[in-house]
């Protein structure tokens, strides 16, 4: 199911599909919700997405493959951009999506982050 079909009542939602490395946005957006690539195929790509999201919004929801080194890096980047965050760890079951996925499914842990400024939290 596409994310667009899940929208109910939002004020002027916009979906941006672009090359994150060359994406230029002239004004801040309210909220970014993203599921970036985990940086397995192209190392560090997840952090490129995270840095871009933190630079254009004051609230970011982001999913990352759970890993202690990644968690430390995310903590550092969050502070660098002046954000606080909360994290929820969960199991995720992924069906094959790319040609190199050979298993019926792959199960692993993910960290779901809420990054925020000011006094916002769950």
TrEMBL record:
Top-level taxon of the source organism: Archaea
One Gene Ontology biological process: methylation
Alphabetical list of InterPro entries matching this protein: DNA_methylase_N6_adenine_CS, rRNA_MeTrfase/Polyamine_Synth, SAM-dependent_MTases_sf
Residues that span the membrane, as ranges: none
A GO term, aspect molecular function: methyltransferase activity
Protein's name according to its UniProt entry: Methyltransferase
Phylogenetic classification of the source organism: Archaea, Thermoproteota, Thermoprotei, Sulfolobales, Sulfolobaceae
């Amino acid at each position: 199911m596409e994310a667009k079909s899940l929208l109910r009542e939002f004020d002027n939602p916009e979906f941006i599909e672009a090359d994150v490395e060359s994406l230029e946005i002239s004004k801040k957006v309210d909220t970014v919700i993203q599921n970036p690539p985990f940086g397995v195929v192209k190392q560090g790509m997840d952090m490129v997405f995270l840095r871009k999201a933190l630079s254009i919004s004051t609230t970011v929801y982001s999913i990352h493959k759970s890993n202690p080194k990644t968690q430390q890096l995310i903590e550092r980047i969050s502070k660098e951009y002046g954000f606080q965050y909360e994290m929820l760890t969960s199991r995720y079951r992924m069906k094959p999506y790319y040609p190199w996925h050979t298993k019926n499914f792959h199960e692993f842990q993910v960290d779901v982050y809420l990054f925020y400024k000011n006094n916002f939290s769950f």
